[in-house]
Amino acid sequence: MIWFSDDSFSDSDFDFRFLEIHILFSKALICVCLFLYCKGELNMKKRETIFTSKQAFSAVIASLILMLLAVAAGVVVYAYVMGWIGGATQNPQRQGQMQFDSIYADTSASKIKIYVRNVGGVDLNVSKIYVNGVEKANATALPSVGVALAVQTTKYLEITYTMTKNYFYEVEVVCKDGTSISQSVQAK
Predict the structure, then answer these.
(1) Is residue 17 part of a domain?
(2) Domain span including residue 85
(3) Are residues 154 and 179 in the same domain?
(4) What is the CATH number of the domain that holds 152?
(5) Which ranges of 43-58 would DSSP assign to H, the alpha helix?
(6) What is the pLDDT of residues 75-132, one digit of tens each?
(7) Which of 47, 55, 81, 173 is most exposed, with the fewest beta carbons within 10 Å of its own?
């Protein structure tokens, strides 16, 4: 029984409904158990005939079932091991990684000036530059050749683009191998 030391509760205010529900639930559970036990006693004769039956699988059928289980287990183990070995023996492709060292949107010159660095383990070739999802020509190199970006080097890229002061523009630099980097820049 729970007693409260607070003066706002008294014995007459305490609700004993939870106790009544618990008792009713216990009675119902006992009735269900007795019913199942009695039903089991009535069906005991049927169970005895099933378990004492002399009929079983033949030795041939049992052998076939065991062989099928062994073959299925072998196939599962083979698939798992070959997948693991296949993944462990392949050389992982080195991926390019870039970062912006500096990006500046100059509204007076209508140019976006970008310094991009190759921080990955492979040489890259910058092929496309997008501003707000629209491809723009790089003013510092021929578009068909691209800009070679060796490992741990920085390159200057410049785009001519008409902008509005204090607006943000999404600039994305994409390489021929799919490596890309994007960042928003505020026009100043």
Answers:
(1) yes
(2) 59-90
(3) yes
(4) 2.60.40.1890
(5) 44-51
(6) 888 888 777 766 666 665 667 889 999 999 999 999 999 999 998 888 888 888 899 9
(7) 55
